[in-house]
Amino acid sequence: MGNCCSDVAGGQSAVGGTGVNQGNQPNAPNEAVDAFLKSRGYQGLYSQIELSLSATSLRDRDVLSKSDPMAVLYSKEKDGSLKELTRTEVVLNSLNPKWITKYTMAYYFETVQNLVFRVYDIDTQFHNQDVKMLKLEEQDFLGETSCTLAQIVTKSDRSLTMDLVCGEQFSGQAHARKFGKLTIFAEESISSKTTVELKLRCSELESKDLFSKSDPFLVVSKTTESGIVVPICKTEVMKNDHSPTWKPVFLKIQQIGSKENPLIIECYDFNSNGKHSLIGKIQKSLLDLEKLHSAGTGANLFIPTAMGPKQENKVLKSQLFVESYSEKIQYTFLDYLAFGYELNFMVAIDFTASNGNPRLPDSLHYIDPSGRPNAYQRAILEVGEVLQFYDSDKHFPAWGFGARPIDGPVSHCFNLNGSSTYCEVEGIQGIMMAYISALHNVSLAGPTLFGPVITSAAHIASQSLTNSERKYFVLLIITDGVITDLQETKDALVQAADLPLSILIVGVGGADFKEMEILDADKGEKLESTTGRVAVRDIVQFVPLRDVQYGDVSVVQSLLAELPSQLLEYMRFRKIQPTL
């Protein structure tokens, strides 16, 4: 799934352009480049999903014939309001309708997409009206149900059957009367899988730096119908290179629209402050790029010299070449879910003394009597509410670190549930309850060490791999400070990179987390162990909670958007194919 990926492990670090040669890996963004792209409208990865509906054993509300059912699909917004998405056609005289009308929607892994389905019996007098014009309050209500899109796509056959209930009972009464069943089938659009692989190079780029050569990278964008330029892909940064050849990138046909649609390819000189300098640009469709490859010729870049209706362009000596061009069907994140893979959630919480006395309101661990979650609770809830749908048993390993249990030494990995034999709790609420209980049963201490909890998570992932289980593990570490075992943590991460494991780190509080970003390899150099071994892929994503809590992008979206690509990177690394 995704709109652009590269073929280098860890995703072509955008600073330096180095990486381990591990074919077919997704592209990992650099912080400065990503901020630049997001400011211009770049969004996360997604797949197009087509929903089909059918029902069985509906109520018969007509006297002389069977019901004439129509289904209505809604999305449930964050404020609880319903937004109508589509209506099916009316199926005449049927209690077991199979509607022909499909609805295509974008599936975003990193968000919870709540859906509501309602079924109505359409009165005979309205049969000749366009379904869009029907007043639903004038129709007989047959029942409703709800689910998340994730609940559908995680089924092996991507089909979910649910009971239809009355509106009053739908809100949560224990003994709701059932009024038939609704089945939702999800199919991933083939355009989500059709991918163009491009290997691009440039020649004779102009220098934008005073004392060195430029550090070029490419941004590929499309123009929407309204004229807005939206970035869809980028390359890595090549340092000090005026004739760069970038690693291959993959563009999804679905995001471009068609091979005839024009693309804007811009070449920038990377600057660490995020203010990248335009070296030159070009506008070509995929068909044009395919012809350039076939002919073995280049196309000159240009740079705008005047803006407005009379825009003029200066043609440069610099040229863009297409070294390779191919189209292929790529396995997607949803293919692996259908193959039976699950995402197993794990969490580790920082109990070091720098968090402050939990009994005082200024503590990061303070439990507000009003029910307002603290930063730790927020991170658990926001990440957990997404990942829980991808874990069938919802038994989550949960640890604490940096605290002293009653009458014991400081522990850097203790079971949050207080048990000495097992680490799992049941559900997200189980994590929350164990967290609050631990605050009353341990003394905050220190220092901040990540190595032990990463090793514990890696041990579980390693056992799963040995047992050939179809599981991929996600460890959430929430911390308020900079770690003191940096090299030991690097060693643990280099070892863990071989395993089905990703690590999300959320920094809470006002600490300076610059050193923490060393662990996030797409924000710096590749991780290297004490023995000189380099991590085969980047498995860490780090974000300070304060950086995203006031914007439109939540901490969940910032952290989770990369997970599908990391899972695909692991599958390609292990050469695992979802043979259905």
TrEMBL record:
What's in the GO CC field?
plasma membrane
Keywords, comma-separated and alphabetical: Calcium, Cell membrane, Lipoprotein, Membrane, Metal-binding, Plant defense, Repeat
Keyword hit for Repeat: yes
Tell me the protein family, please.
Answer: Belongs to the copine family.
* Record membrane topology: Lipid-anchor
List the Gene Ontology MF annotations in alphabetical order.
metal ion binding
What Gene3D superfamilies has UniProt attached to this entry? C2 domain (2.60.40.150)
Query: InterPro entries from the entry?
Result: C2_dom, C2_domain_sf, C2B_Copine, Copine, Copine_C, VWF_A, vWFA_dom_sf
Where do the C2 domain residues begin and end?
A: 28-162, 178-302
Instruction: Please name the GO terms of the biological process aspect recorded for this protein, alphabetically.
Output: defense response
- A Pfam family: C2
- Coarsely, its chief localization is membrane
Localized where? Cell membrane
Which superkingdom heads the taxonomic lineage of this protein's source? Eukaryota
Q: Which SUPFAM superfamilies match?
A: C2 domain (Calcium/lipid-binding domain, CaLB), vWA-like
Q: What's the protein name?
A: C2 domain-containing protein
